[in-house]
Amino acid sequence: MEDVQGSVDTRQIPINRVGIKDIQHPITVLGKDGRRSASIATFSMSVSLPHDQKGTHMSRFIQMLNETETEISAKNFNKMLSSMVERLEAESGYIEMQFPYFIEKTAPVSGVKSLMDYQVNLVGQIEQGHIDATLEVTIPVKSLCPCSKKISEYGAHNQRSHITVGINCSSKLWLDELIKSVEAQASAELFAILKRPDEKYITERAYNNPKFVEDVVRDVADVFDQNDRILRYYVHAENFESIHNHSAFAVVEHDKSV
Amino acid sequence: MEDVQGSVDTRQIPINRVGIKDIQHPITVLGKDGRRSASIATFSMSVSLPHDQKGTHMSRFIQMLNETETEISAKNFNKMLSSMVERLEAESGYIEMQFPYFIEKTAPVSGVKSLMDYQVNLVGQIEQGHIDATLEVTIPVKSLCPCSKKISEYGAHNQRSHITVGINCSSKLWLDELIKSVEAQASAELFAILKRPDEKYITERAYNNPKFVEDVVRDVADVFDQNDRILRYYVHAENFESIHNHSAFAVVEHDKSV
Amino acid sequence: MEDVQGSVDTRQIPINRVGIKDIQHPITVLGKDGRRSASIATFSMSVSLPHDQKGTHMSRFIQMLNETETEISAKNFNKMLSSMVERLEAESGYIEMQFPYFIEKTAPVSGVKSLMDYQVNLVGQIEQGHIDATLEVTIPVKSLCPCSKKISEYGAHNQRSHITVGINCSSKLWLDELIKSVEAQASAELFAILKRPDEKYITERAYNNPKFVEDVVRDVADVFDQNDRILRYYVHAENFESIHNHSAFAVVEHDKSV
Amino acid sequence: MEDVQGSVDTRQIPINRVGIKDIQHPITVLGKDGRRSASIATFSMSVSLPHDQKGTHMSRFIQMLNETETEISAKNFNKMLSSMVERLEAESGYIEMQFPYFIEKTAPVSGVKSLMDYQVNLVGQIEQGHIDATLEVTIPVKSLCPCSKKISEYGAHNQRSHITVGINCSSKLWLDELIKSVEAQASAELFAILKRPDEKYITERAYNNPKFVEDVVRDVADVFDQNDRILRYYVHAENFESIHNHSAFAVVEHDKSV
Lengths: 258, 258, 258, 258
Known about the structure:
GTP_cyclohydrolase_FolE2/MptA (chains A, B, C, D), hydrolase (chains A, B, C, D), GTP cyclohydrolase FolE2 (chains A, B, C, D), GTP_cyclohydrolase_FolE2 (chains A, B, C, D), Urate Oxidase, EC 3.5.4.16 (chains A, B, C, D)
């Protein structure tokens, strides 16, 4: 049966990336304490294609997912990148995998435990054997407006916010640690279960700790600047404003090597 | 050229609805004061199909959209339903059209004007000549938690909420009136532009006016119960909780004829 | 600390449903052969609230999720409904849980194995002790247009389609069986990995098996009509038309008890 | 009333971008022939913030939208960028506006006219007075698989595809021209209304014109390479595969100045 993809192309146009996307696959995430948790990831996998090759072999990407147990850790992710370019006989490759990650959190006063979900996105690229990977996480928190607090006789508008951070590290940084360090910079952190004493605590903590979206990105950036394992990062914060029908957002990017 | 759709079907299975969906088309919305505003609607249009007919003629739905100027008003919507079943030679028909609608609002203290957007959904059904139409609108507002206020020494958690109402009326009820009557039941309403004195006003008003998601649906239901033009309604409120990563919601439905 | 939610309400308006939504939680799905697979569900849980009660206790819904292992099976789902209304002291309750479900499929010629994902939605309601549950699944397939085939000298337009079925059963019907019976009614079924001989097989099978969106819903309805365990169903098919930028869809609903 | 945003910040961290997003606003789009068409855009507007300034003045972004008629053309977009950084007293600024755009198309055989919708995204950046703008459009088309055609005795799988192009030009390139030149590179273009002779034409044209996702990006790249007004571009094509439940995609990027 003819291999149309394998035939020669004469248009002289190399392709930066070709592959598959929006495929869901079950995965296992390896946590700090050796804990393994199940999740479901949405994958995008692609490779470069030289100018003289008509097409790539799409089914090989999916075979990779179906042959491995796909346990996700920094080490395995790098292996996936290497084996993908080898298998597809490509110079460069790119993998993105997004999945929900759960952490058991303890309510601040009652001590009640509940799971909180975070959206994780691993983005990696391999080019001539060199790997560059970014760990991105979206962390939902509470923000309380300093202006509203200052000018009002009582109360202050507050809302759910998303802090999305992307980091590039020299050595391993566990998801749980990263998330904890970011949540500490919000007006208050979120929990799935809060009993009344917890709700009082969170309400008062947020009121005592007002932050603009600008403050949030600066405070997270400050923490990341002081962490030597982080070589490069971006911090994006978005407030789903409770006095408007639109969002306020801010971004800080920093590459320490520059 | 053979008309496959028009051939006879022998499976003895009538089809409740068949048609098209997810098609965008520009429309004109007719407002209370004769004001015409442009919008873009996403349409779903379908008809019933008797058991002995193989297929419907899909292109006729789109032709209806492309032949008319599609000025939206209660009267025109009913006409669309009638002419659709006539054109498709069907016993019953169904149209759903969703579009953003803008109202110019005036900030409460500074008087600054700005546009606020609302998502409208017109849902209509015609069966043996009888038309039944529901006007649905999603109205973004602010809610402030009564429990959080009561138990905390200062502050109270608040957040953006969506109140979605669906009404069936005996006589015309303008969108602007409907939206205004619903916004008045929230802890506070939203604006695209708020100057500092406005922000103070909204912050304090919300603090003085705490409402659970249950309070919001009850207060809107109360207003609708007293409006004789409304024959049937539902009220759905969703709080994008600022202390959790999930929503709280409540629903009240009432058919006054029952 | 005052229990605001527990106080008395005087507005005389009962609430049909109040609860939480859009919360993600890991689950275990029990399959036919005793196989347990991990997934992540998005939950909506709510109860009725009598007119004289101000609010429900939202944290109890989440506590239910965090206390149980949440192994999903028909039996466990019914238990969740019962224990929810008991715990919330409510007359009626409602749970909806959506999650991806994976089936290992074997390519038709090469025999290569790969996972295929389906979106499942369990919807259940309990009212005065009586439970009514619907199992809904969305099954992606291929449809090929009979009209395009008939009138063209070669080729025929075809596209990805979603068949969404909702069934109410007298006795257990396994997801794998249900999905298989629906896939058989499409022009062809989908696979994550197809080798060239498989691709030839699927292409030719679809061409030999043209179906309008009307044919698909009728053929699935026919299968469900002949299955005595199914008491009530709906079939919704949507073709993401490859010659248009909109969808064609059709719906058949049948309650055998009527 | 205190201006909290205007106070001094001591953290020594400049902010790359701060502003608003996800706000909808009606716009007028200026077409080639002077035709004005109404649309609704979703805006993101942001500016840089120096390290010593605590916050930006968010309401000014929205005031810009509410004060102007916001007629969209290349010239006006550049003016918006300039006036934004002036108004916000910022060194650099960024605007993104996404909106649907409609073109009246004529069916290839019957000549029936209908509207087709395209998603447009204008992305612009101003830095120390220098403006850099990208016009991005997503163009839905049909793709037909060359491999499936070659190996099968009859038929070939085909599907809806999205070609998303982003271009940076030296002089004006009208949306209608750009879209037309891209549609010509697909296996076939799409229409909202096709009569049977049109459907036959499109079906056969696609079958005579098979293209992998790799072919589509190369053929569009080839057209752009030959257009001297285009200085820089990217082409992204995504096939919603009709034999799989995932997409195939390819990307070519080219900066002619490099």
